[in-house]
């Protein structure tokens, strides 16, 4: 159900009120999407065009947390919250649902899935057991759905791979230890090396995907978030390569003025510098 809009005077007061809270944000979004006076860009948007921004904002929240940039986090969380309000406003415009429906849905879900907090169940169980119970309740809500149903297609591919594997593992389709996963990685890497020389580009891509899928499985067995691990590797690469640029710049040069042998030596220097910083 939609919340009644304030009149023009009240709307102006609300959008400029720093203490307006959630009502202020909802009204700002309504004004941006007003067919007569709103923003042309906001009016042109659809669920499909906004979805990539939603994913981007979620990643920026994760990045701020990874960097422990606590001064940036309120703004990043605000950007993500705005995405929820944006989708809700477009839904209301289309007569589908409104922001209060979103709030009610998540509130009802949290209450129903935490009977040990809001109901009569005992809290005397571990976090792991609570996770098992959460998944059991989700499965019950899905009813007779197939095991892999409901794993969102829009997730980052590595994250989705882990979720698919977790679902399969719950019904016993899983390797018993990391030894079998590592052996499979070796097998898939060999197949990729062979495919490189004799298969089509599409077949090589398929073999590469198989290798990534097994790498995600190893991450799951090791209780590592593969997205976080890769973000860390990206950050490390950026940091070390920028040190290479800095050292070359001291001689008035750029990487294009260098060669692989020199840059590789500078990379090892940056690597040693990183290790020293970690040990200190």
UniProtKB/TrEMBL annotation:
Q: Give the family this protein belongs to, as stated in its UniProt record.
A: Belongs to the nucleoside triphosphate pyrophosphohydrolase family.
Instruction: Quote the protein name from its UniProt record.
Output: Nucleoside triphosphate pyrophosphohydrolase
Which PANTHER family has this protein been placed in?
Answer: NUCLEOSIDE TRIPHOSPHATE PYROPHOSPHOHYDROLASE
Q: Does the keyword Hydrolase apply?
A: yes
Q: Which NCBIfam families match?
A: mazG, PRK09562.1
Q: Which gene encodes it?
A: mazG
What general EC class does the enzyme of this chain belong to? hydrolase
Enzyme Commission no = 3.6.1.8
Q: Which UniProt keywords apply?
A: Hydrolase
Give any GO molecular function from the UniProt entry: ATP diphosphatase activity
The transmembrane segments are none
What GO biological process term is on the record, naming one?
UTP catabolic process
Q: Does the keyword Hydrolase apply?
A: yes
Q: Which reaction does it catalyse?
A: ATP + H2O = AMP + diphosphate + H(+)
Q: Where is the NTP pyrophosphohydrolase MazG-like domain?
A: 45-118, 180-240
What the entry lists under CDD domains is as follows:
NTP-PPase_MazG_Cterm (cd11529), NTP-PPase_MazG_Nterm (cd11528)
Q: Record's InterPro entries? A: MazG-like_dom, NTP-PPase_MazG-like_C, NTP-PPase_MazG-like_N, NTP_PyrPHydrolase_MazG
């Amino acid at each position: 159900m939609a919340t009644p809009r304030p009149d023009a005077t009240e709307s102006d007061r609300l959008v400029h009120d720093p203490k307006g809270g959630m009502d202020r944000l909802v009204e700002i979004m309504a004004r941006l999407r007003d067919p007569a006076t709103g923003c042309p860009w906001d009016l042109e948007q659809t669920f499909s065009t906004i979805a990539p921004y939603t994913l981007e904002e979620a990643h920026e929240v994760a990045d701020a947390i990874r960097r422990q940039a606590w001064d940036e986090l309120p703004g990043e969380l605000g950007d993500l919250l705005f995405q929820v309000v944006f989708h809700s406003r477009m839904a209301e415009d289309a007569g589908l649902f409104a922001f209060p429906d979103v709030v009610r849905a998540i509130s009802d879900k949290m209450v129903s899935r935490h009977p040990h907090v809001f109901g009569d169940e005992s809290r005397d169980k571990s976090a792991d057991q609570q996770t098992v119970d959460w998944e059991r309740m989700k499965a019950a809500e899905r009813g007779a759905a197939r095991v892999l149903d409901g794993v969102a297609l829009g997730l980052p591919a590595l994250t989705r791979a882990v979720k698919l594997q977790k679902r399969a593992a719950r019904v016993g389709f899983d390797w018993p230890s990391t030894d079998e996963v590592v052996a499979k990685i070796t097998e898939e890497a060999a197949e990729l090396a062979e495919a490189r020389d004799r298969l089509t580009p599409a077949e090589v891509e398929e073999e590469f995907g198989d290798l990534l899928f097994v790498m995600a499985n190893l991450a799951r067995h090791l209780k590592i978030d593969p997205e976080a691990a890769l973000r860390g590797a990206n950050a490390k690469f950026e940091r070390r390569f920028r040190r290479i640029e800095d050292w070359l710049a001291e001689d008035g040069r750029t990487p294009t003025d260098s060669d692989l042998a020199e840059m590789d030596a500078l990379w090892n220097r940056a690597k040693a510098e990183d290790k020293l910083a970690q040990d200190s």
